[in-house]
Write a structure and sequence with these properties.
Blueprint (H helix, E strand, L loop, with lengths): L2 H13 L17 H9 L2 H16 L18 E2 L5 E5 L4 H6 L6 H12 L8 E4 L13 H18 L3 E5 H9 L5 H4 L4 E3 L2 E6 L2 H6 L4 H14 L6
The structure holds uracil.
Length: about 230
């Protein structure tokens, strides 16, 4: 289909209220593919240097939103700067705020077991959040807080240039995809974040309360493994 025709079809979908269209991963490379290839061509040391520069230059000591007042630590994210796969959650909780590391509480233990079941170690992937400081009482981050923090995550994704992203839960999935579609409708299909295949899935904290949906999350993870060439069939 020609680009112009595709644009018309998508405009029609949007007009009738369809906010997000699942697509095949191979159809995804988008307008930022060139930038991404350049970033992907960079080695681990350069990426580590770029991430450190981002932290030291823009994030350390940040007072860009009201979350800075209540935090103990900024949770930048951690893992391999050249990771093939990124996991993106919502916001640090109590334990993450105390330790300055993402997903180290109970939900983190479940995420770590998913990562290991997928055949990775935690250090092989990169784990980050939509916002880097803890919202009090673990409430959802507010629009102004997401607005202040999202550029940092976007830059992290640009530097790491992963081959795939797993977005954990509603807030991460809706924020990265710019949609209000429910997580239960988004999950199970690849979507595109700046041309990078993004698989929305359930948040591990939700899975702790709804154990039967772990099987669906594993289905999502298997699709990601297939995309990465780590599982056949
Ligand atoms: N929940 C999240 O979304 N992120 C964390 O880092 C911990 C819990």
């Amino acid at each position: 289909m020609k680009k112009e025709d595709l644009r018309r079809v998508l405009e029609f979908y949007r007009a009738i209220g369809v906010e997000s269209v699942p697509c095949e991963p191979k159809a995804l490379p988008g307008k930022k593919a060139k930038t991404r290839r350049a970033a992907a061509g960079k080695g681990r040391p350069e990426k580590q240097k770029a991430l450190s520069a981002l932290f030291n230059g823009k994030i350390a000591g940040c007072t860009g939103c009201k979350l800075s007042a209540g935090r103990r630590n900024i949770v930048f994210g951690e893992g391999d700067p050249a990771a093939r796969l990124m996991f993106i959650g919502e916001a640090p909780g109590r334990e993450e705020d105390l330790q300055g590391r993402p997903f180290v509480g109970d939900a983190g233990k479940l995420l770590t077991s998913l990562i290991e079941k997928m055949g990775f170690k935690r250090e092989d992937v990169f784990i980050a959040n939509i916002v880097k400081c803890r919202p009090e009482g673990n409430r959802d981050p507010e629009e102004d807080e997401v607005g202040a923090c999202l550029p940092f995550l976007k830059r992290q994704i640009e530097i790491i240039a992963p081959e795939a992203i797993m977005a954990l839960g509603r807030v991460a999935s809706q924020t990265l995809l710019g949609t209000t579609v429910q997580i239960s409708k988004l999950r199970g299909n690849f979507h595109s974040y700046e041309g990078i295949p993004l698989m929305p899935t359930f948040h591990p904290a939700y899975l702790l309360r709804n154990r039967k949906d772990k099987a669906l999350t594993w289905q999502d993870a298997r699709q990601v493994l297939k995309l990465l060439g780590m599982e056949s069939g």
